[in-house]
Specification:
By secondary structure, this protein is mainly alpha-helical. It folds into three domains: 100 residues, Fumarase/aspartase (N-terminal domain) (Fumarase C, Chain B, domain 1), CATH 1.10.275; 230 residues, Fumarase C, Chain A, domain 2 (Up-down Bundle); 93 residues, Fumarase/aspartase (C-terminal domain) (Ribonucleotide Reductase Protein R1, domain 1, Orthogonal Bundle). It has 19 helices and six strands. The strands form three sheets. The protein has a two-stranded antiparallel sheet with strand order 1-2. A two-stranded parallel sheet has the order 3-4. It has a two-stranded antiparallel sheet with strand order 5-6. Strand 1 and strand 2 form a beta hairpin. The structure holds arginine.
């Protein structure tokens, strides 16, 4: 049974029928479709379009369809084009021709937009939950080694000492922004298109505000043309998901480096690493590499959707059927990546000895310049003087902290005996007391702020 038999002399070509069909992927919207249909049936009842008995019977029929789906017992037919057609076809088998009244005043155009928004709202909540799990793992790792010193890098060159807690929490906050973005995407999805009909609205006096609150939407759309073709919410969701993927990719990239023999700062747990089929000595960070790789896939989903949307005239066009798979794929990808990443983090073994071995005194050159600046030397000048000190150490083939006081004083008379005390890494961390810095008390404060974001 096709939905438009009246006007057509011929059936759809079998291949064209398959080409048109979206059931294969939109069947996962069955719960949203049925929930929205039940609300619509109630709306029709309140508008006097359905009698109480008719509405009861339709709602009971829809609940039966839902139960069949839930049990994995729904029997799909060859001609079911999409989830909306399948649900209505089955409803009509259960309740008879009355089932045909459900679609009064409604179109698949406002129906699919409603279903998809409901799905996005749920997907935002679900992803956000997964992100919290990873954030808790980062917090646990950070608090276990809050002040364990390690080199910090810019341009991937050793720059200044930081601590494991500082580094780890540095990956917590991007995820906090991801959760914020998902909450905003959820809010933007929560505008109800139902009642927009195919494009021009509906002649049946259904109370859209009541529909919205019954379905958990916070607003109703203002323009029916816009409502049936607005997929901004889908792009917002995908951008949020992609940004999250990019953050996870950066975290992965850095852990891959840290786990390499060249750095050796961390050891991946066997449960999250793989071996090589040829090289017995290898332990590969496949889970992290795959996470980095998945970011490319997410970016592809986002750009694909934007390309689909860019040429569309107003109201529904079938191109819009292409909107769902990129989001489903993004959600499925992240539903797997996030718990795996939480596992990687919570089983990560640190090697503070390897980190310490890389904490060259040269990483404290800035602190030596600050020493001079605190004694009145303009910082630009102090920077130049310490540059000379560094060169001198290089010429002598010694580390920065091995220069004698007279040697320092030959560069600047401002240096006194306490200048040599600068080369203490823990003291250097402790000097950065400003909010966001490496000092233990600043880190404690940051940790508390992080914990407040993801209460158990
Ligand atoms: N399966 C379609 C989609 O996902 C449903 C809407 C179809 N509407 C139409 N006028 N052909 O977009």
């Amino acid at each position: 049974m096709s939905l438009w038999g009246g006007r057509f002399k011929k059936d759809t070509d079998a291949l064209a029928q398959r080409f048109n069909a979206s059931l294969n992927f939109d069947k996962r919207l069955y719960a949203e479709d049925i929930t929205a249909s039940i609300a619509w049936a109630r709306g029709l009842q309140a508008a006097g379009v359905l009698t109480g008995a008719e509405a009861e019977s339709i709602v009971a029929g829809l609940e039966q369809v839902r139960a069949e789906f839930d049990a994995g017992a729904f029997d799909f037919h060859e001609l079911d084009e999409d989830i909306h057609t399948a649900v209505e076809r089955r409803l009509t088998e259960i309740v008879g021709p009355l089932g045909g009244k459900l679609h009064t005043g409604r179109s698949r155009n406002d129906q699919v937009a409603t279903d998809f928004r409901l799905w996005v709202m749920r997907a935002c909540d679900c992803l956000s939950e997964h992100i919290s799990g990873l954030q808790r793992a980062l917090i646990a790792s950070a608090s276990g080694d809050l002040n364990t010193a390690m080199p910090g890098y810019t341009h991937l060159q050793p720059a200044q000492p930081i601590s494991w807690g500082h580094w780890t929490l540095g990956h917590f906050w991007p995820l906090a922004r991801d959760r914020q973005r998902l909450a905003q995407a959820r809010e933007r999805a929560a505008t109800l298109p139902l009642g927009s009909g195919a494009l021009a609205g509906s002649t049946f006096p259904v109370d859209r505000a009541a529909l919205a609150s019954a379905l958990g939407f916070s607003a109703v759309s203002q323009n029916s043309l816009d409502a049936v073709s607005d997929r901004d919410f889908a792009a917002d969701f995908l951008y949020s998901a992609t940004m999250l993927g990019v953050h996870l990719s950066r975290l992965s990239e850095q852990l891959i480096l840290f786990a390499s023999a060249e750095f050796g700062f961390v050891v991946l747990d066997d449960a999250y690493a793989t071996g090589s089929s040829l090289l017995p000595q290898k332990k590969n960070p496949d889970t992290l590499e795959l996470t980095r790789g998945k970011a490319g896939r997410l970016i592809g989903n986002l750009t694909g959707l934007l390309a689909t949307l860019k040429g569309l005239p107003s109201a529904y066009d079938k191109d819009l059927q292409e909107d769902k798979e990129p989001l489903f794929d993004a959600a499925d990808t992240l539903d797997l990546v996030l718990p795996v990443m939480a596992g990687v983090i919570s089983t990560l073994q640190l090697r503070p000895d390897k980190m310490a071995a890389r904490l060259q005194p040269a990483l404290l050159a800035t602190d030596l310049a600050d020493y001079l600046a605190k004694r009145g030397v303009p910082f630009r000048e102090a920077h130049g003087l310490v540059g000379k000190v560094v060169r001198r150490a290089e010429e002598h083939g010694v580390a920065l902290d091995e220069l004698s006081l007279p040697e320092l004083q030959s560069v600047s008379s401002v240096f006194e005996a306490d200048a040599l005390e600068i080369f203490d890494v823990q003291a250097a961390l402790a000097r950065r007391k400003l909010a966001g810095g490496t000092a233990p008390e600043a880190l404690q404060q940051q940790l508390r702020a992080a914990l407040a974001q993801v209460p158990e």
